[in-house]
Amino acid sequence: MALASLVALLHDDIMNDDVAARAEPVRPTQKPIRLIDEKGVPVEGAERAGFVLPEPEMLLDLYRGMVLARRFDVQVTALTRQGRLATYPSAFGQEACEIGAVRSLGEQDWLFPTYRDSIALLTRGVPPEQILSSFRGDWHMGFDPYEHRISPQATPLATQALHAVGLATAAKLKGDDVVALTLLGDGATSEGDAHEAFNFASVWQAPVVFVVQNNGYAISVPFAKQSHARTLADRAIGYGMPGYFVDGNDVAAMHAVTSAAVQNARSGGGPTLIEGLTYRIESHTNSDDPTRYRSKDEVAHWKTLDPVARLETYLRASGALGDELRQEIADAAEELAGATRDAMNTNPVLDPLELFDHVYAAERPALREQRAFLERELAATVSTASVSSGSVSTASVSAEPGSTS
Amino acid sequence: MTILDDNALGTSAATGSALTPSPSAVASPGTPAAPAPLSIAGALNAALRDALADDPSVVVFGEDVGPLGGVFRVTDALHATFGESRVWDSPLAESGIVGTAIGMAMYGLRPVIEMQFDAFSYPAFEQITSHLAKMRNRTRGRVSLPVVIRIPYAGGIGGVEHHSDSSEAYWTHTPGLTVVTPSNPADAYSMLREAIASDDPVIFLEPKSRYWSKDAVALPVRTAPMTRAQVLREGTDVTLIAYGPTVKTALEAATLGEAEGLSVEVVDLRSLSPFDDETVGASVRKTGRAAVIHEAAQFGGYGAEVAARVTERQFFHLQAPILRIAGFDVPFPSPQLEEHHLPTAERVLAALDTWEW
After folding, report:
1. Which ranges in A114-250 belong to alpha helices (H)?
2. Which residues lie within the region annotated Disordered (chain A) (predicted)?
3. Considering Cα of A197, then B137, then A180, then A46, what sign does the dihedral take?
4. Residues 272-291 of A with CB under 8 A from B
5. Is A391's pLDDT higher than 50?
6. Active site residue B294
């Protein structure tokens, strides 16, 4: 394949001792970085790894983001149980990772999320009905990527990480001040594309931040069967980039570390790999039965490490969050839940002929013919329905089934 | 677009120099040159050079496409002319090459990437089929991905395992992709320019056994639109439908057939997806007989699609069933056995002999 160039690189490094000349990668800490502990008390000492608590205003913003996200998540899970959505992968318990990471981005930056990261989209301002379009099943996605600078939520694992590296590289080539942040799960790090994304980003020094939300399970497979590494953040060393192992239920730490990584990328420092250690409280999706692969005790334990309660305790103790503000935020969350319910309780109006509109930029005769076929079929269906005045029958077809010539 | 320095894509010492394209170094696409012998590889090189010079959003990257100029030299001298920020060597990873090209195209670049050899494209299968082909559809037309994937394909060069596959059926079966393959130098230039200008992702299959076939061509040349098939030789008795490497085989069969008193029409498909029903249909209506020739295995192959389409539309004009002259249903053979696998002109004529005339 490309053996010649590989040998050349290796040779070059050994001969010129380039390896020593490169910046020493930051070794992830043994214990996860945290700024506020599970009791809501600020952490002192080595565990902070030199990071400082975000300003009170930012902490309140993160709190508000997490409260809204959780209410949204609970509401959508309920709507899924009522059959209003085909499926919904919940992020209950992972709010600190999602909100902490997304709030580190500037307006011009891009987000490359996965299917579980709906609350990250919400936090970045995408309206609920546009986020849920995909899970309700009316179209594969419902928002404008360029309006929100968010890529479609990726379902194949780790593929979107390469898109993030490509977009960030293009921005760098054009001289634009744009950082791309991509969210991955622990299972995704087993995919080849995760490796390729880490490697390409580091070789090209792309302004990318990889945030791995290690929530303990890839559907049912526990982390111990996913990787034998001590931490996923450790992998950064091998790619020649900084890696950070963070308490993923501490939104202050997630935000501080991710913000530093975004800043580093923005100033030409290249990519960073961040692992947030967290837990998925809910099932993988509504069709999953988590009691088959994890214990009640385990779930109960992680509930005591709740990221929202932790920050609330801290904010109340510090005086930044009083009853009035707390209620105001709770009311906003209820309002969001109501708006989400209203949006999802309306049946979407879909145009079947749109099926053919977005396959190619250039017109295709074959698709034009197939569109005309469906149009005839729909017309026949409507006329049958109006004659029988009964329910719309899907059995009614065109007189020329299959005819496209 | 800013042309960055050598370190545009990394901190390690990059090879070559980042030169802003100078008027003297870049062929001016506006001025036709005198016809001169030109190979398919040379035509592709010229097309890339002109596209890079004309449009600052065009970038070329992949394995060995930089200072080496590609293992087939299709990207020869482009790195020296356009610099590290326009033409560069990527890490050795095909999924990574396609995946990053997708992100670049989302940000307004027009990447032209190379898979080096046909079967090396398989690690990128997911990025091509799940993302490159579907992004426009997923985003309701909001995101265009003008990416060209160049894939040197098919056998006949004595390549070892994984260097001679014909993967066209995988790509043509994927809605969202345009799949084209030139068979001569003029088309190679014209179709690659058109593919790069297209807002749809294009799989650009290069018949590597024909890379060194030469014609007298005056550059820049524009041939028929890449989505149109071309009748390369007129005939009245039978239509041979071929593409890429088998066009030469079909033309040889036509010459042999003529000696036997058979009037053979040869259609070069050029575009596999979309399929040009009009040109192929007109030819078959004229001759009443058709055979399709390809190197890939027959079962589930592209020839089955051609035979089915033409039968559905031209059944009452046909005097005989449509034949497929294809590779055997075996993994592509070792170099010393490939001659038995590849369709030859003699094999084409022998197949035509099975019809009752």
Report:
1. 118-123, 128-136, 145-148, 159-174, 192-204, 235-239
2. 382-405
3. negative
4. none
5. no
6. no
Closest among A80, A162, A150 to A119, alpha carbons compared: A150
The shortest CB-CB distance from B176 to any of A169, A354, A359 is to A359
Q: Which helix (H) or strand (E) is B196 found in, with range?
A: helix B185-197
Joined together, the tokens standing for residue B65 give: 């496409």
Contact A143, A130 (CB under 8 A): yes
Residue A311: name the closest of A34, A31, A41, A57 by CA.
A41
B5: phi then psi, degrees, rounded to nearest 5: -80, -175
Query: The whole model's pTM is what?
Result: 0.91
Chain B interface, best mutation among A140, A150, A163, A176, by max B CB count within 10 A: A163
Lowest mean pLDDT among A12-21, A301-310, B67-76, B118-127: A12-21
pLDDT band at A395 (very low <50, low <70, confident <90, very high): very low
Residue from the list A156, A161, A359 with its beta carbon closest to the beta carbon of B126: A156
Name the residue of chain B whose CA is nearest to A164's CA: B103
According to DSSP, residue B21 is labeled P
Neighbours of B350 (CB within 10 A): 12
Classified as helix, coil or strand, B155 is: coil
The pLDDT mean for chain B works out to 92
Instruction: Give φ, ψ of A80 to 5 degrees.
Output: -65, -40
Contact B194, B226 (CB under 8 A): yes
3-state percent helix, strand, coil for chain B, nearest multiple of 5: 35, 20, 45
Q: B153 near B170, Cβ under 8 Å?
A: no
Distance CA B275, CA B199 (A): 18
Looking at residue A286, its pLDDT comes to 83
Q: Min CA distance, A33 vs chain B (Å)? A: 29
Helix spans in A244-364 (H): 251-266, 296-303, 307-318, 323-344
Contacting residues of B for A126, CB less than 8 Å apart: none
When CB atoms are compared, the residue of B9, B106, B136 closest to A359 is B136
Q: State how far the Cα of A204 lies from the Cα of A198, in Å rounded to an integer.
A: 10
Helix (H, G, I), strand (E, B) or coil at B197: helix
* Kind of pairing between the strands at B178-180 and B271-273: antiparallel
CA distance B325 to B333: 17
* Separation between Cα atoms, residue B240 and residue B325, nearest integer Å: 10
CB distance B102–A163 less than 8 Å?
A: yes
Q: Enumerate residues 6+ apart whose C-beta is below 8 A from A140.
A: A134, A152, B134, B137, B138
Could you tell me if A146 lies within 8 Å of chain B, comparing CB atoms?
yes
Query: What is the SS3 assignment for B87?
Result: strand
Note whether A204 contacts B: Cβ–Cβ < 8 A.
yes
- Counting runs of H as helices and runs of E as strands, what totals does chain B give? 12, 14
The percentage of chain A sitting over the pLDDT mark of 90, rounded to a whole number, equals 84
Token pair belonging to A364: 């295709």
- SS3 for A270? coil
CA B282 to chain centre: 24
